[in-house]
Amino acid sequence: MFYKIYEEKLAVYDDNKERLLSTMSFMPQLENERLLETDIVTADELNEHPNKVLVDDIQIEIEVPEYETITEEYEEVVSETDIMGEPIINIEIKTREVTVQTGSHTEIITVKGLVLNPDFEAEQAQKEAERIQELYMTRSDFFDGTIQAWGVGQDELLVLIQTLLATLPIEDVKKLMAINNFRNALNFYRKHDLFKMLVNIPIQLTETIQVIITDEHLDKFFDEVDKGNKATAWQYLPQPVQIPLPEEAVEVEE
Are strands 2-6 and 202-204 parallel, antiparallel or unpaired? Predict the structure, then answer.
């Protein structure tokens, strides 16, 4: 079935876009109406998520009757009596104007109706991104994760971050603020600048091991902790990988 809104009432249509009889009692003006193809909203789409459907101007096709005013003759009986009191019946021919339907034509009109929201997916993605950025976790939860994932705790990670930030083209004041937050913040927020500085850059854990953190890693890590999955959230952090060694020079025999 298909649905649309007309004058703030719900109209129901079958698969052929013909209005069902059950709606005629309160919407007789739609008896002969047909939805255009672009106006279809299915029941599943309507129920799946309210933000996926919105009210907007839509077009419908209606049959408009055509009328014409014509002059027609008709007979009128006039009764009289003669001087003797006898009835006299006279028939007079008169004319009158009447309106008759001569045909019909199709018109496309615009009404308020239900249509799919073309920006639904983008709006949902934006809301989800905003939700993730507001997530936070305790210092203990954060460092429990880095210890389980990389074997690196608070003190070791501080040294690694200081070393890395020294090599990045970022204002010194922003670096100092990021380090200050790392050292003193009660909780770590996903949206903090420090996490923006660390993404997609190799962080060297040892002489031979490094990790590269992406936004997706951090999003999932914070989200899992927020959902209460603290024991397994560390698994969404990147795994350490071997640092690529420079190719050894190949001696060419003379």
Answer: unpaired
User: Is residue 189 within 8 Å of residue 221, measured between CB atoms?
Assistant: no
Q: What is the pLDDT of residue 150?
A: 96
Q: Give the torsion sign (CA, 129, 130, 131, 135).
A: positive
Residue partners of 144: CB distance under 8 A and separation at least 6: 230, 234
Separation between Cα atoms, residue 205 and residue 157, nearest integer Å: 8
Residues of the chain falling short of pLDDT 50: 249-250, 252-254
Read out DSSP for 115-164? EE-TTHHHHHHHHHHHHHHT-EEEHHHHHHHHHHHHS--HHHHHHHHHHH
The structural domains of the chain, with segments of one domain joined by +, span 2-118, 123-242
Report d(CA 132, CA 241) in Å as an integer. 27
- CB hemisphere CA count around 11 (13 angstroms): 27
